[in-house]
Write a structure and sequence with these properties.
It is a single chain. The protein is an alpha+beta fold. It is 21% helix and 55% strand. It has one helix spanning 17-31; strands at residues 3-14, 40-53, 58-70.
């Protein structure tokens, strides 16, 4: 079988920075090290960033993962 490596970004949005960070940490806890079924071989945390979107008045925590999956 052929395996492909892809980078995915998941964004967690909230009114406050601490809320966005908590959501980002929950995403990381749920996905880091995940393997599933016949498709996902490995999912690993790669990076995390916090941003304030002034125009929307929201905070964002972006969490990146590297996922190896069967094509």
């Amino acid at each position: 079988s052929i395996w492909s490596r892809s980078r995915y970004q998941i964004d967690a949005w909230a009114d406050r920075q601490d809320q966005a960070e908590a959501l980002g940490l929950a995403v990381r806890a749920a996905l880091d090290g995940y393997t599933g079924g016949a498709v996902i071989k490995d999912c690993r945390f790669a990076d995390r960033r916090w941003l304030h979107e002034a125009a929307e008045g929201l905070h964002r925590c972006s969490v990146d993962f590297i996922i190896w999956a069967q094509e």
